[in-house]
Amino acid sequence: MDVAILKFLNGSTGRNIYLDAVFIFLAVYFIFVLAGAHFVYFWRAKRLDLWLLSVVVAGIAYFTKIIIGFLHFRFRPFVMDGINKLIDKSSTEASFPSGHTLLAFALAFGVFWADKKIGTLFLIGALLVAISRIIVGVHYPSDIVAGILIAFLLSLIIKKKIESIK
Prior knowledge:
Layout: H1 2-10, H2 17-44, H3 48-71, H4 99-114, H5 116-135, H6 141-165
């Protein structure tokens, strides 16, 4: 099922350079837009303490990805026949879990726990990053799901901190 979903989503690539460019932007660069918006949100809310906590949690999430990658190495999907690789990634980098997804969702959940309405927009943005990582051929759907789950679990730290302040 993992490969079937990957092939379905990735199968739309290579047909339209403009659509491919959108997916590449979302997969590679949109996370920087989310990170900037994340800072602006907490700065405008005058909660840089929560911003810093959210960034620390995102760092822990990424460190967790590195550890998991050493313990359970999974090749990138583009090493299979029939997968279009739209961005430059090395086949020696672990696919599981998705680091971009981890970071995007860790930041998004940080905002979500503070403000459900704006946080929902961040979660949608993080989902765009996640799905585009499958579309460009560098992650399996299970890499994405694992990234979301890890980010969610680690972001509960932020939620507990927010609840203790209220």
